[in-house]
Amino acid sequence: MSTTWQDEVAAETRAGGRISDRFIVDKVRAAVLAQRLPPGTRLPEVALGDIFGVSRSVVRKALTRLAADHVVSQQPNQVARVRAPSIEETRETFAARRLVEGEVAALLAGRLDDALLATIASRVEREAEAHGRGDEAARIEHSLAIHHLLAEHSPNRVLGAMLTDLIMRTSIVIALYKRAGLSSCYLAEDHPALLNYLREGDGEAARRCVHDHLQALEGLLDLSTRETRIDLMAILGQRESVTP
Asked: What are the residues whose beta carbons fall under 8 Å from the beta carbon of 181, sequence distance 6 or more?
């Protein structure tokens, strides 16, 4: 991200806005998806309240919503943490997403109007541009937008809702298990190919493209146990680094 969280919080305050639990949810989710808050990161209520300038009750509402979205884990009398899926859950999540997103893509092939196809094409182009300039956060944002567009426009709304959930789950998994030293999980040919199949109305080719894309992503992961330690204050960029 080009600005720190408190820059955005300060701007919101200057504009007369009130920091809501939804604001916090959006910021934490964005940081997780951009792999700036890895799984296992502690999210103390006091620290988050200080960062966003809100009461602990607002923070608790935000954490409850994040838990419902499978972004954080909450246990009684314990500090909330960004979720850390097991290796078994990781494999199951990718298998489920291949089934669901493959079916959604097959259903959508040949059914998208020109405006939506143009929106997806724009995201595909912007993803490539972001990768080219080394902006991984923007690349992830555009990549996720492509998949969310499929979920949002799924002819089967139940499958669409399931896909939205699975996109988040796999994003967290990638943040945890991305192979050390791998700067990006970018697969340059996959999204352009999927766009072509959707435009041409080739449902089975779209399904295979999704399956191959997700299989390749899973292949880029290092499915071994890791310890994750992170300085929350440093990630949020508020003050001097303080270990939570």
From this structure: none
What was the pLDDT predicted at 243? Answer: 34
Residue 1 CB contacts under 8 Å (≥ 6 apart), including other chains = 30, 31, 34, 36, 137
Domains of the chain: 5-84+228-236 (1.10.10.10), 87-219 (1.20.120.530)
For residue range 209-231, what is the model confidence (pLDDT) as tens digits? 999 999 999 998 987 655 555 55
Amino acid symbol at 41: T
